[in-house]
Amino acid sequence: MSKKTTLCILACLALIGCGKDSTSALTTTEIRSVSDIQASGELRVLMRNAPTIYYLDKDSHAAGPEYQMAEAFAEHLGVKLVVVLEETITDTLTALKAGKADMAASGLTVTSQREAQFLFSKQIESVTEQLVCRRGGNVAKSLDQLHKVSLEVVAGSSYEETLQTLKLNNPQLSWKSNTQTGTEALLQKVWDSKIDCTIADSNIVDVNRRFMPELVVMLDVSQAKSQAWMMPKGSSSLKSAVNTWLNSDTGKATAQLVHDRYYSYIEKFDFVDIRTLVKRIEDRLPKYESIFANAAKQHNLDETLIAAQAYQESHWDAQAKSPTGVRGIMMLTQNTAKSLGVKDRLNPKEAIPAGALYLHKMRERFDDTIPEPDRTYMALAAYNIGRAHMHDAQTLARKLGKDPARWSDMREVLPLLSDKRYYKDLKYGYARGLEPVRYVQRIRNYEDIIKGYDE
Fold this sequence. Notes:
This protein is an alpha/beta fold. The chain folds into 3 domains: 151 residues, Periplasmic binding protein-like II (D-Maltodextrin-Binding Protein, domain 2), CATH 3.40.190.10; 95 residues, D-Maltodextrin-Binding Protein, domain 2 (3-Layer(aba) Sandwich); 182 residues, Orthogonal Bundle (Lysozyme). Helices cover 45% and strands 14% of the residues. It is built from 19 helices and 14 strands. Strands 1, 2, 5, 6, 7, 8 and 14 form a 7-stranded mixed β-sheet that branches. Strands 12-9-13 form a 3-stranded antiparallel β-sheet. A two-stranded antiparallel ribbon has the order 3-4. Helix 11 packs across helix 12 and helix 12 packs across helix 19. The longest helix has 21 residues. The radius of gyration is 24 Å and the shape is globular. The N terminus is likely disordered.
């Protein structure tokens, strides 16, 4: 967490509601200009606990796409970010009207009703509202079937505005407005078969469906819509500063970094793969958790990362074998196992620490000036394709004007190792460069699901 960040309320874990005991100290009816904000030394921002907005990670560090963007903007202004947590969208809008914060960065969609009451920044994220039901349950396959399912949505949300518009041509349409909770909790209700369906933004669906694989998107109920930061009427000075920053090179670079961190690794949804992972988190992972933890601790790695890598390698099957002869839960070659002192590749107590050691060695071979998590992603790619080909890829990156220390650039360069126009001039020649890109992407996805499942 940045030293410039102050959390005014202790946050609960993601997906769990939070109290509001500490908001009184921030209550004001004043609409502050940018100069007022800078003079006070803090930017007050309304958020909610959600994976796509703000949460505390397992080390109690603040995280989340909206949080990271707002923190970067606060640093641009030279002030601290003060997060003011609210439980629901209705609470958020009420708090903004009451002047409890300078703006809201809370996954809020721009709608005509909201524009009549608030100012919005330029687009932060583009989303589509989707009807989500449970696989095998009572579902609606079209808009004219919506009245046949029990439909519950967040009160005061953009989803309600969409449904009100749809009802003009579908008078039978009805729904329940939930004033107590957020979209994630309603997705959980659908997954638990307590309601048939709900409506959620596409980015929320993408994140949460990996933890609840039986959720299925039946249809889009809207065209693409913009999510943006919301400010009170009269906050033209702040709106101008936000938009100027978002349009700047720094703002664009921040938005790209945030997208890379939270969304880029989420692959096209695979129901069977994710359902299998969830099942194996329950019946296989417990057998190896302590081994993953000890191996990770020994080499200053994240235990969930090691578990995710092992799942990518073998689906946590200690007896796994590939056609090329790699074996065991970490799928070690004979030569690699021998170099690491492993006598039995099929013994997880030997294989897991060896795999962690090998990843550690790969990471150590990259310059320690490469920031995390990029350095670890480079190490994972090297684990998959070999350090020699990663050296070639970094050399090629420099020739192409890319940054060899940024994973977002390297994942664009690596696939070129199979293109003769490029590999013919490289020291180590041809390589299937797309494989390490997908390897890292899958591990990041599995890691996130395992962490979310634990929470």
